[in-house]
Write a structure and sequence with these properties.
This protein is α/β, with parallel strands linked by helices. The protein folds into 2 domains: 59 residues, DNA polymerase, domain 1, CATH 1.10.150; 295 residues, TIM Barrel (Alpha-Beta Barrel), CATH 3.20.20. 33% of the residues lie in helices and 19% in strands. It contains 11 helices and 14 strands. The strands form 3 sheets. A 10-stranded mixed sheet has the order 3-4-5-6-9-10-11-12-13-14, covered by helices on one side. Helix 1 packs across helix 2 and helix 4 packs across helix 5. The longest helix is centred in the middle third of the chain and has 19 residues. The chain is globular, with a radius of gyration of 21 Å. The two termini are 23 Å apart. 45% of the residues are buried. It binds iron/sulfur cluster (SF4). Iron/sulfur cluster (SF4) binds next to loops. The site of iron/sulfur cluster (SF4) has 11 residues, from loops.
Length: 374
């Protein structure tokens, strides 16, 4: 790969058609290449066997299939959680995490290298903002995950003798990637255009063909992004990182709250739910004695029941996430009993609520642990 080469993942079908037309090739050649990339998911021009040798040569010289350099692949949960560390052409690193469950496979991808949002509990925040990813670099992480999912289904790289919470029986292993969550490094709404291009590309029924509801974007609470998403044609899922029931605490944990305080955020969420008729999730990371006290749980119930979403409470869902350790952070994970008590208060208050299943903690691949260091 050289700097001058075109990353094919950065082109949509019209872009690809234009590229090959410039070489005097007909439009159907572009469709063939597109299918090789997104249906067959090939990573080598040699495998594009429907093309002439001369065209494959031209592609090899002028283009590349992705530009993320794999630095390290780590496995946890007996091979059913996989974390990839990638180097961007400019040298920064990013990460993606694939989690295989019975009947489904979810990949968590990065949308930026580093992140400017400064959430105090997050490993990525410590890097600051480094760079936006291109649409192609976001797409590339998903295509990697699709290949790995297939490999797991075929028994590659999994410990057949292991048993434990993360192990998936052969007959329950998904044959295809089922979900993409934009919850890795970065804030997708800060890189909206490239992120949305990646969603459209992966959704394209003539290509990768992933259902719109298979995508979930997580936002720190950027109100303009929520409003923009409400107008998009594809019904992707929205998750909002809430993490505190009042402005004082939320601003201390997440500086973005000073720009978009809770009531404004909930109002935008309500508008989003009304416009799209879609359910919205709230993420709430539990930090011992910071935001996990019983009064916080009661305050959260009041906030959701009495605030702008009050009469739409069945359209919401709270995901409780026991915090995963980040070195150098003076925070502690909530004890299990506190997590259970918190959840029970929310449920008694009529708030739909679950606690997220943990994966990948042993390889620092869990939520908030991605720091681009492998
Ligand atoms: S939690 Fe998300 S938005 Fe906040 S700093 Fe980390 S990556 Fe950025």
């Amino acid at each position: 790969m050289t700097d001058e080469q075109i990353n094919l993942y950065d082109l949509d079908l019209p872009g690809l058609t234009e590229l090959v037309a410039g070489w005097g090739e007909p439009a159907y050649r572009a469709r063939q290449i597109y299918r090789h990339l997104y249906v067959q998911n090939v990573v080598d021009f040699e495998a594009m066997t429907t093309l002439s040798k001369a065209l494959r040569e031209k592609l090899r010289r002028d283009c590349c299939i992705g530009n993320l350099e794999p630095v390290r692949l780590q496995q946890g949960d007996a091979g059913f959680t996989r974390k990839a560390l990638w180097k961007l052409p400019q040298g920064e690193t990013i990460e993606s995490v694939l989690m295989i469950y019975p009947g489904r496979a979810t990949v968590c991808v990065s949308s930026q290298a580093g992140c400017p949002m400064g959430c105090v509990f997050c490993a990525t925040a410590k890097l600051g903002f480094l760079r936006d990813l291109t649409a192609g670099q976001i797409v590339e992480q998903v295509l990697w995950a699709a290949r790995e999912t297939k490999a797991v289904a075929e028994g590659e790289g999994v410990d057949a003798l292991a048993n434990g919470a993360g192990v998936v029986a052969p007959e329950e292993r998904p044959s295809r990637l089922s979900n993409v969550v934009f919850m890795g490094m970065g804030e997708a709404f800060n890189n909206y255009d490239a992120w949305w291009d990646s969603v459209e590309r992966l959704h394209d029924p003539d290509g990768f063909n992933m259902g719109a509801r298979s995508f979930t974007v997580s936002t720190v609470g950027l109100v303009p992004g929520i409003r923009r998403l409400a107008k998009e044609s594809l019904p992707v899922n929205l998750a909002i990182s809430l993490h505190a029931p009042d402005d004082e605490l939320r601003s201390a944990l997440m500086p973005v709250n000073k720009a978009y305080p809770i009531q404004e955020l909930l109002q935008a969420t309500r508008e989003y739910a009304e416009e799209t008729h879609r359910r919205v999730s709230f993420e709430y990371v539990l930090l011992q004695e910071k935001n996990d006290a019983m009064e916080h749980a009661h305050a959260l119930v009041r906030l959701l029941r009495d605030g702008p979403l009050g009469d739409r409470i069945q359209w919401t869902h709270v995901n409780l996430i026991p915090w995963n350790p980040v070195p150098g952070t003076p925070l502690e994970r909530s004890h299990r009993k506190r997590v259970e008590a918190f959840q029970s208060i929310l449920r008694s208050g009529g708030i739909p609520c679950t606690t997220r299943m943990e994966r990948g903690t042993e390889i620092d691949a869990a939520c908030g642990q991605l720091a681009g260091q492998g």
